[in-house]
């Protein structure tokens, strides 16, 4: 399958919004209103009550400001995948203690009909290149240890990261911490 990867920006904002409006969570309506804002909002603990309308507006504002970064994957001109990647200092939940040269991959969202076609790996390759270009010295991610359902794989798969040279540097009850020195 042929995919085109483009960076999130003012010129791809409408594609991003359309993807999250219609396709991103077509098989998981419970997460339908996220617009990839979960990790960007200041809050204590993991409590989060973002509304779909508020998240959409925040996503649009952050895209136009340039503070929200990521990659859109297209197939036949239509957005079919997303990877949220940024410097940690731009991500509220990970900002404390983050150095200026640390990056993080927050999530992948792949349209249901495009899963298991290597798209997350293509997005990972471009995310690494994008963060190198941004001056990051390392990039980290937190794949789930034993996802019970597909939805819990939104951080990517451990095997995918290991195949690209990431090293496991820590873990907790639910996730592995993987890091690639750039």
UniProtKB/TrEMBL annotation:
Domain N-acetyltransferase: 3-182
First and last residue of the signal peptide: none
Protein name: GNAT superfamily N-acetyltransferase
Organism: Youngiibacter multivorans
């Amino acid at each position: 399958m042929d995919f085109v990867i483009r960076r999130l920006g003012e010129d791809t904002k409408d594609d991003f919004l359309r993807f999250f409006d219609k396709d991103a969570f077509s098989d998981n309506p419970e997460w339908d209103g996220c617009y990839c804002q979960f990790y960007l909002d200041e809050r204590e603990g993991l409590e989060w009550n973002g509304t779909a309308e508020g998240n959409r507006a925040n996503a649009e504002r952050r895209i136009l400001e340039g503070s929200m970064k990521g990659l859109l994957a297209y197939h036949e001109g239509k957005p079919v995948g997303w990877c949220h990647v940024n410097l940690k200092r731009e991500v509220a939940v990970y900002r404390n203690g983050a150095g200026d040269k640390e990056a993080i991959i927050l999530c992948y969202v792949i349209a249901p009909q495009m899963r298991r076609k290597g798209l997350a790996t293509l997005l990972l390759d471009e995310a690494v290149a994008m963060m190198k270009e941004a001056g990051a010295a390392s990039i980290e991610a937190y794949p789930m240890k034993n996802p019970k359902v597909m939805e819990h794989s939104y951080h990517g798969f451990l095997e995918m990261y290991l195949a690209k040279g990431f090293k496991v540097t820590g873990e907790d009850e639910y996730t592995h911490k993987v890091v690639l020195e750039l």
